[in-house]
Design brief:
The structure holds two protein chains of two kinds. Chain A is 23% helix and 17% strand. By secondary structure, chain A is of the alpha/beta class. In chain A, strands 1, 2, 6, 7, 8, 9 and 17 form a seven-stranded mixed β-sheet that branches. Chain A has a six-stranded antiparallel β-sheet with strand order 5-11-12-13-10-16, with helices on one face. In chain A, a hairpin with a 2-residue loop joins β7 and β8 (261-268). The model of chain B has no long low-confidence stretch (mean pLDDT 97). The chains are: A alpha/beta, B mainly alpha.
């Protein structure tokens, strides 16, 4: 049995940051990751198997076999799903986690995003709540993430929307034709635009080169390592100290306790041998779904409902983002091949929309793979075969613009992760059972943003616009959050304001699980910022 | 995996799903190669659907026109395929014709517009056609 100062479960955006900060503070760290180390060549540019289009699989872990989840649909029917199937709510596993293949949008949440309940009131049936901390508490850690991991952005435009003490370290990533056209459309509407902040080098930074504007950014690994995440920054720094031991292809079975106190973890190593490790502190960073599962699976006489779950809160309030959007056929080409492709955002609809709770950001979209264009971007009345379909692809692949964005979800306590009573994974561990849906208020907000998407495309010169109106659903996926929410009251939250599990002075959470609400923005910068903050707190409390 | 007659029918079907113009049709662009690989992999469980569907398409053509599907004129092939798509068959099909058609249309697009690493889209021909260029 090995002993460390800290065990971190999960090497994604949050876990990598926590491991790095703790190691640099002199702590010995065991970082356990169920996926593999993923070099560039280990993440194939397979257009049918990636995290944008998982038709037959994907290009990272988890493997398709041995990792089922059970999903209960809106009609009450159970489905046992594999990781690449719809509704599994998958995120990539591997060192780096989902961020190894992400689009790298680097948004701060707005001050109001931390105060949703007091700003809007709580709709019936919702668990909408304020965070126990505010924007000012997180802002210094947003700044650390922006500088220590590396963000390119428009400092002046950002400062008009967010209080910020320091500029971005790099200017925005290069504009492309789609972005220029959409900016003209926004100007015509009087909508202020903002260059999308990205965890991508627009100039050489952190010892790595600038983005080369390829077409395989989101869903894939960067060919020149210009995409920044925790594995090539904080975790690399932590490993350089010699104090981080990374164990990959290892599955944590439970957090171990003695007399109710957390003492370490039990896990299966890559040879499926059961191992135990001991530590002063355990940090859970497996993602909002798997972290909740691990807490629920960590049962003992003192914690018969699982760790941190005395009030039946673990796994509730699962959130991700609804992603309303639309596509428009433009009168001129908009695809010029300059990736990553997302360039231009509108943030004025995140709050202040009459008769709605919250809102969302909306932006132009990443370069789209041709097969995804065929599967998702063709007009609904176009035949899917024959000369006409081929002609449309040929004439219009470069002329279709896309805008979409994340809507702040209104949480429901019934959107939840529980344990399935029957199905086990390949290690014999009870698997996740997903059920419920977000609060229906989310659909109203998403419908409003769907209309804004169309309005923006029309003002930008679209001859024809189409898309799919939002419908009530459970979300999670790559933006999963909320299942171990922060709060001052243990009866209605799982973690305290320092991301520490109520009732345990040595068990922390460093992923999206702690988000009370998930903002109307991509969540990764907040996950990173809160991981910095939690790790710093661990060191301070040592 | 397929008999010679089935393969001939499949080739004719693919070339109507993605017909040749001044760019190659589906078969010459490698959709057949894509399918052959996938029938041994991810699509092994739909191989029987293809076998039955292709046989039924051939029976349907002979019943309606007296000749093989692959020998029909393109316009007649399209007309027959529109009925398959809608499930309006003159003969008894052992499989759902619309489901067979939807699968074939989707798989043809995957072979044509997917990456060449999957066995189709020979020399990135569809990407050149639509203006998707890979740099870096």
């Amino acid at each position: 049995m090995s002993t460390y100062d800290v065990i971190v479960v999960g090497a994604g955006a949050g876990g990598g940051v926590a491991a790095g900060v703790l190691a640099e503070a002199g702590k010995t760290v065991l970082l356990i990751e169920r996926g593999r180390e993923l070099a560039f060549d280990d993440v194939p540019r397979d257009h049918l198997r990636n995290h944008r289009y998982s038709r037959y699989g994907h290009n990272t872990g988890p493997s398709l076999e041995g990792n089922p989840r059970v999903v209960v649909d809106r009609d009450g029917h159970e489905h046992t799903l594999r990781p690449h199937e719809d509704a599994y709510q998958n995120n990539a596993t591997g060192v780096g986690g989902g961020a190894r293949v992400y689009g790298a949008q680097a948004w701060r949440y707005l001050p109001t995003d931390f105060e949703m309940a007091s700003t809007y009131g709580v709709p019936a049936g919702s668990s909408l709540a304020d965070w126990p901390i505010g924007y000012a508490d997180v802002a210094p850690y947003y700044e650390r993430a922006e500088w220590e991991i590396g963000v390119s952005g428009d400092s002046v435009g950002s400062a008009e929307r967010w209080p910020r003490d320091r500029d971005y370290p790099m200017p925005p990533v290069q504009l492309n034709r789609q972005g220029a056209l959409m900016r003209r459309g926004a100007d015509a509407l009087g909508w202020p635009t903002l260059a999308v902040p990205l965890l991508i080098n627009s100039t050489p930074y952190g010892g790595r080169p600038a983005c080369i504007h390829c077409q395989h950014c989101i869903g894939f690994a960067c060919p020149v390592d210009a995409k920044n995440d925790s594995q090539n920054t904080l975790l690399a720094r932590g490993r350089a100290t010699g104090r981080v031991e990374v164990v990959t292809e290892a599955m944590v079975e439970q957090v171990d306790t003695v007399g109710g106190r957390v003492v370490g973890v039990t896990y299966f190593d890559r040879d499926d041998e059961r191992q135990t490790a001991r530590a002063e502190v355990v940090v859970l960073a497996a993602g909002a779904i798997e972290t909740a599962r691990l807490m629920l699976n960590s049962r003992s006489p003192e914690h018969p409902q699982g760790l941190g779950n005395a009030h039946d809160q673990v796994g509730r309030n699962l959130q991700g983002h609804y992603y309303p959007g639309a596509v428009g056929l433009m009168s001129e080409p908009v695809h010029d091949g300059i990736g990553p492709g997302v360039t231009t955002a509108i943030t004025q609809f995140n709050h202040g929309n009459a008769d709605l709770i919250g809102g969302g950001m909306i932006a132009d979209e990443f370069v789209v793979l041709p097969i995804i264009f065929w599967a998702r971007n063709l007009p609904p009345d176009l035949p899917r075969w024959g000369a006409e379909a081929k002609r449309f692809m040929r004439d219009n692949y470069t002329r279709v613009a896309r805008v979409m964005g994340p809507v702040q979800e209104i949480p429901s306590p019934n959107a939840r992760v529980t344990l399935d009573p029957k199905v086990r994974d390949r290690w014999g561990i009870p698997v996740v059972r997903l059920s419920g849906a977000t609060h229906p208020e989310t659909v109203r907000t998403a419908a409003f943003m769907y209309a804004r998407a169309g309005e923006w495309l029309a003002a930008s010169g679209a001859q024809r616009i189409w898309g799919s109106p939002p419908r009530l659903k459970l979300s999670g996926g790559q933006h999963q959050a909320g299942t171990a929410r922060m709060g001052d009251d243990p009866a209605s939250s799982v973690t305290d304001r320092w991301s520490r599990v109520h009732g345990h002075d040595n068990l922390y959470v460093a992923d999206g699980s702690v988000h009370v609400t998930n903002g109307g923005f991509n969540p990764v910068l907040t996950i990173m910022a809160l991981a910095f903050r939690a790790a710093e707190h661990i060191v301070r409390e040592w | 995996m397929l008999t010679e007659p089935q393969r001939a029918t499949l080739r004719a079907l693919i070339d109507r799903l993605i017909p040749a113009d001044d760019y190659p049709g589906g078969w010459d662009a490698g959709v057949g190669d894509y399918l052959e690989r996938q029938f041994a992999g991810d699509l092994s469980d739909v191989l029987d659907l293809y076998r039955s569907g292709l046989d039924a398409l051939e029976v349907e053509a002979r019943a309606k026109a007296g000749i093989s599907f692959s020998e029909l004129a393109p316009a007649a092939q399209d007309e027959l395929l529109r009925r398959v798509e809608l499930g309006e068959m003159a003969t008894d099909w052992p499989v759902d014709p619309a489901a067979f058609f939807r699968a074939a249309a989707e798989h043809a697009a995957e072979g044509f517009y997917g990456d060449p690493g999957n066995g189709g889209n020979r020399d990135e021909v569809s990407w050149r056609m639509i203006g998707f260029e890979v740099t870096g």
